[in-house]
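OP here, attaching both records as promised.
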Amino acid sequence: MGTDERIERAGLCYERAVFGGDPTGLPVADRELDAVEADLALARGRVAHARFLADRSAEDPREGALFERAAELYRSLGDARGEGEALFWVGTFHQVVRGDHVSALPALERSLQLATSADDKATMSYALRHLGIAAHIDGRLPVARERLEESLRLRRELGFLPGVAANLVGLAYIAVGQDRRDDAWALIEEAGTIAKSAGAEGIVRMVEEARSDLAGDVPPPL
């Protein structure tokens, strides 16, 4: 159900209560508006996150609170899919914005559980990717590789080409850490081809940075 429909239903519940003397629909109105608020909080949080990624200058103090609010509302609505997506963003906020991988893990792990139960393959792929990043940072390269490869499989299945290319870059860095340099080069070249074909210029830049790192034998910046 769309946002406009939810707001319209809440309005009808209001009219029945005020003009028809029947307040029994007010709990329904609350649920409809909670769903609208959850969607809006998640969308606003994502915009704040994109703004942070654009300049990496300062944390928007609203971002984490917006994702937490979305997760809380989806949970109260019994919406496992929505809660799983919101919790992914809670984890990403801690991991990417604050650089706190320890605090990110519970949210990312719970996100993966909920997304799996809801068969939300997109959120599963995101949670697996960021759990793989956390494992890479911890030096658990086999676990990191396993998680990114599973994320990659899901993204190929979904046809999410920019995400496929991003994961190939991540796997190239893992290959470097495992002294599989030929594999790393092959992964980077495939990532570049896919990113260019998808018109994903942000990922193309990521590929070029990875190519430069590998050529200069520089440790991967995660």
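Record two, same layout:
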Amino acid sequence: MGCVRKVTEDLYWVGVNDKRLHLFENIHPIPRGVSYNSYLLMDEKTVLFDTVDWSGCREFLKNIEEVLNGADLDYLVVNHMEPDHASSMEEVLIRYPNCKVISNEKAFMFMHQFGFVVEGRKEIVKEGDTKCFGKHTVTFVAAPMVHWPEAMVTFDTTNGVLFSADAFGSFGSLDGKLFNDEVDFDRDWIDDARRYFTNIVGKYGPFVQLLLKKAATVPIQMFCPLHGPVWRTDLGYFIDKHDKWSRYEPEEKGVLIVYASMYGNTEAAAQQLASRLCEKGMTNVSVYDVSKTHVSYLVAEAFKYSHIVLASVTYNLNIYPLMYDFLHHLKILNFQKRTFGLIENGTWAIKSGSLMKKFINEELKECKVLGSQVSVNSSAGESNAPEFETLADALIESMK
């Protein structure tokens, strides 16, 4: 018996959930798991849109068999060749020898690189091509670098469904709740969606903007992504989030404080600043220990907030290594358009503040460092009180 859900009159979700995987792409923690979404269209021609990760292949094949109910599979559309979506492709093709594979030229090149045998079964499409399966006609739209160069999306012009590949996705296992209106997305899902986008797709914001512009020209009624819930209501909410994230614009006015502390003194300084901000009415403040928080969470929070304060001890005359790692991740993800405040600490030769400022000014685009810096000698004392006050005021003033 399979585990499937009906998406529209002719369309079925035949994907799988994975709650055993600890690290997505073997780097990002996924405590709530992840879904690998695949969709099967039952028309005059049967069409499977993408496959799933190898770990879920057995269940996936059962789902396909249940929906087909004895029918043959005519087509497999590959929107995205990444192995978490394509690694079950050959098993599908073995079981359905008449199935043709529809994808673009670069995707077929990648299939060859991964060792997938599709010769004699290829149907190459390009931007703007259409294909009729009976009642349903689809058009193929290139989505390069969202987030691989071969990525495309497929739009069903009959019912307004956009098979959006890795766009509009999220971490998190579905656990039976397929649609966005079956969950409290703002409470239970937005953090995973933000962390998914910023860490997986975030570097390629300009390419996401191009895809959003293309999407605005067609009457989309539903997003069917390869991870996370299917969107059938309030599409504007999710589009707005992706628009902000891909333009590197903050979602909220607030302050993210990230600290690197060896013995608790820099942590105390970070908490001191947080208290001053809240006393002054800026209560949208989040504080994280860079040594205890996986960098993917820090990146996601950085995309969320308008202002970031980095509080770092000096370590071997340098920035604390895990703080430097956080900054490096921001750089490689093309992070930009934020205001930074700095707190430095050290017992001798305090360097972290000047080095963090140098990194931000030279490596991050369109970022500003406030002149009001807190400099702590081993532990904060009364002499630092005016500095905390000044930095808190400067952060709040810069939000106006």
